[in-house]
Amino acid sequence: MPVSMKLPRRTLLVLCGPAGSGKSTFAARYFSAIPTMVVSSDYCRAMICDDPTNQQVNRDTFDVFHYIIRKRLFNGRFTVADSTALHAEARRKLWELAFHFGYLKCLVVFNVSLATCLERDRLRERQVGSQVIEYHIRLLQKALQEIPAEQWDRVYVLNEDDMEATIEIDP
Ligand code: GDP
Ligand code: MG
């Protein structure tokens, strides 16, 4: 049964999941009509250092990521935040941005197994590697416990055997 999301225009849709769980694929699939709706931390990383995997520039990457999101929310645009958002602190920052602008705070969790993330990682051009993905899976388990207390307006948990969704954005 596909998840059905009916969302107001003033929504911040925060994707949350390990590397290789399919966040960017999901974003590209459902927001292809207006790809600029999707703000990707990997793209922000690439914009400042030409390498979407460079972990040495995290602080600047997330400055840019949050800055673009803030400007979009200021302008009333529907926005998808594509980053792992596995740390409570990362989710809190996005939650607060949405709160500040009176946006609906939505979280989409990609509940995908280690084996599947590793398999998908192996198939892609730039690989994140098993150590990082194993760490991400541990963070995902922790996140799944923490999220109920975080006061998101809506939480959608997508399981790997059913990543289908219908997404409707109010005009
Ligand atoms: P992200 O790291 O969470 O953004 O994951 P990506 O969206 O980049 O996906 C990682 C890899 O898994 C890519 O090569 C995708 O083509 C593949 N992938 C993503 N979603 C699916 C899916 O639902 N099924 C399959 N078979 N592969 C997927
Ligand atoms: Mg991605």
Helical amount among residues, as a percent range?
40-55%
CATH class: Alpha Beta
Listed once per kind, the bound small molecules are: guanosine-5'-diphosphate, magnesium ion
Total domain units: 1
How would you sum up this structure, described in words?
The structure is a single chain. The protein has one domain (3-169): 3-Layer(aba) Sandwich (Rossmann fold), CATH 3.40.50. Helices cover 43% and strands 22% of the residues. A five-stranded parallel beta sheet has the order 3-4-2-5-6, sandwiched between helices. A two-stranded parallel ribbon has the order 1-7. The mean pLDDT is 96. Helix 2 (41-49) crosses helix 3 (58-74), helix 3 packs parallel to helix 4 and helix 5 (114-122) packs antiparallel against helix 6 (130-146). It has helices spanning 23-30, 41-49, 58-74, 88-100, 114-122, 130-146; strands at 3-7, 11-16, 38-40, 79-82, 104-111, 154-159, 165-169. By secondary structure, the protein is an alpha/beta fold. The protein has six helices and seven strands.
Write the layout of secondary structure elements.
Elements: E1 3-7, E2 11-16, H1 23-30, E3 38-40, H2 41-49, H3 58-74, E4 79-82, H4 88-100, E5 104-111, H5 114-122, H6 130-146, E6 154-159, E7 165-169
Parallel strand pairs: 1-7, 2-4, 2-5, 3-4, 5-6
Helix pairs in contact: 2-3, 3-4, 5-6
Describe the structure in brief.
This protein is an alpha/beta fold and 171 residues long. The chain is 43% helix and 22% strand.
What keywords describe this structure?
171 residues; alpha/beta; Rossmann fold; 22% strand; binds guanosine-5'-diphosphate; binds magnesium ion; P-loop_NTPase; ATP-binding protein
